[in-house]
Amino acid sequence: MENNKKVFYILLIPVLLWLVFLIIVPHIELLVSSFKPNSGDGGFTLENYQAFFSDKIYWKTFINTTLYAIGVTLLSFAVSFPIAFYLTKVVSPKYASFLTLLLLIPLWIGELVTIYGWVTLLGDNGVINEFLKYIGVIDKPLHLLYNNISMTIGLLYMSMLFMIVPIMTTLESLDDSMIEAASDLGASKLTIFRRIIIPHSMPGIINGSIIVFMLVIGDYVAPNILGGKSSLWFTEQIYNQFLSTFNWSQGAAFGFLLLGISSATIWVALRLSGQKLDKVGE
Amino acid sequence: MIRSLPNSTGYKIGFRVFVTLFFIFLLLPLIAVSVLAFNDSSAITLPWKGFTLDWFFANTDDRVGLFKDEELLTSIWISIQTAFAMALLSTIIGTIASLLFDKFNFKGKGVLYFFAIAPLVIPGVILGISILLASTAVGGKIESIFGIDAEIFSPGFWLVVIGQFSFGATYAMLLVSARLKKFDPALEEAALSLKATGLQSIWYITIPFLKPAIIGAFVVTFLMSFSNFNTTIFLVGSDPTLPVDLYSRIKFSSTPVLNAVSFMIVLAVSTFAFINLIINRNKK
User: Fold this and answer.
1) Shortest CB distance from A252 goes to which of B36, B129, B226?
2) Closest CA to B181 of B189, B192, B173
3) What is the mean pLDDT of chain B?
4) Which of A179-188, B61-70, B91-100, B124-133 has the lowest mean pLDDT?
5) Which of the residues A47, A166, B120, B186 could staple to A204 if both were Cys, CB 3.0 to 4.6 A apart?
6) Which domains does chain B have, with CATH numbers?
7) Residues 6 or more apart in contact with residue B28 via CB below 8 angstroms
8) Which DSSP helix (H) or strand (E) runs through A138?
9) How far apart are CA A225 and CA B107, in angstroms?
10) Tell me: the pLDDT tens digits for B198-234?
11) What proportions of chain B, in percent to the nearest 5, are helix, strand and coil?
């Protein structure tokens, strides 16, 4: 098999076509476009990057989005870890597959529908406000929609599954008898979590964090639909440049900056944890 | 702590409350959106004004139901076609890539593999704009050299398919690779020693073994395509896919017909998921 040149080329050529024309060339084009002036069709300019640094709204949004995405990733971990632990180690295996399935359903339904679901829940006449009025807690509706909280809920909702599943995978490979042994030797719950469970599930936590961070920083639907006027998200700047003002070179520069910050953050996460990118997909 | 160890009541109850709240959080938007599809009101939210099927079947001046809304039905149909083409292409190339990386060692393999999994960590919006920029540049070159308007390079059905395929193939590859790891190479060696060619042994031995993963990859990439917005929005032409249509309606003109569409999607996905669960359970 190793020496079968014909098979090798039959497999290699389609893969090369895919990666060269749809991954490598487009990203080179993205970089090249970001140095083109928007007015003319030739030349080299730094004006697109200068615009980013000179206009406060751009770089401020950029920094805010990055910090916010890190925050949502941490929040996602805090919510997901107990759920992943419960589904793999606590609940009876009889229910585990059913509950895991429930978990996957929102992912398959898609972001637009689930975010729209949150609009119907959080609106002024939405389900939550009507319920609170009904039980007499409030008289006037609370403004739950179009602010940073509703945006955070949306971002958390659409991304947390990508944290839960990798953590579940690593927890499944942790032998229960390790926990039992520690417990028999008198370790407290906290010690068991800190010394056994968390270190063992670290690869899953890192994988999940990387995917969640990337999804959140690159998301448009949740910030745009659920966020308010003050919840500026950097992807919105890219959309505006491409779809409203048609300044593609400026949009390309923003895109490249987004790609840069997300790659850099992921690289740091991999470095700190000593993992390889190869393992992220598993 | 875990199943086999005694737990305090506080620990158990605390855990149960948290998990219950979590599942309410998970399912509430889906339930709300589905129930409100049957609300006899023009608002997408409460109050409840009685049961109606108007948002599915009506065709009056102020209410157009899902099954009478030509525009919506068209976008659903476009999404189905897009998802089918994208899933087919992704599954084929993804399977080929998984075979290539599994069976061969070659110079530059590491670099190539890096690019193959890069779409996992590239935001969808970046893939969308970079493919738009590249295809526009290529289309422009072709037009200036040959004087023909190469439509495949301008936003439209095929550009959406190609754009979604750029990351779909990655997921298909990973799903197929996971099963390929369990493959016993002795089976292929046996075929080869019986004078099968390399291609024959892949086609008759390896591919049938991979069949469940290939079907799984097709389903997963189909669903990814059907719900994709971030990449699609930049590549779509005059005919929107369902998520693009839903987005502009949520933004500018929400009526409960959106709930009707959502209800149908929730229903289809849950039915499919539960059939899947039952089949898997019976297998065990």
Assistant:
1) B129
2) B173
3) 84
4) B61-70
5) A166
6) 70-253 (1.10.3720.10)
7) A117, A121, A127
8) none
9) 47
10) 788 888 888 888 888 899 899 989 988 998 998 999 9
11) 75, 0, 25
Cross-chain residue pair B273–A22, CB shorter than 8 Å: no
- Sign of torsion over alpha carbons A148, A153, A155, A160: positive
User: What phi and psi values does residue A110 have, to the nearest 5 degrees?
Assistant: 105, 155
> B26 vs chain A: nearest CA distance in angstroms?
7
For A167-203, how does the pLDDT look when each residue is reduced to its tens digit (9 = 90+)?
Answer: 988 888 887 788 888 878 877 778 888 888 888 888 8
Selection from B269, B20, B29 nearest residue A153 by Cα: B29
Would the CB atoms of B262 and A117 count as touching at under 8 Å? yes
pLDDT band at A278 (very low <50, low <70, confident <90, very high): low
**Structural contact between residues A180 and A123, judged by C-beta atoms closer than 8 angstroms:** no
CA distance A202 to A207: 9
CB contact under 8 Å between B19 and A86, yes or no, is: yes
> In the predicted model, what is the mean pLDDT of chain A?
84
Burial class (CB in 10 A: 0-12, 13-18, 19+), B67: middle
Structural domains of chain A ordered from first start = 46-279 (1.10.3720.10)
* Interface contact flag, A280 B120, Cβ < 8 Å: yes
pLDDT above 90 as % of chain B: 21
Give every CB contact of residue B13 below 8 A, 6+ residues apart in sequence.
none
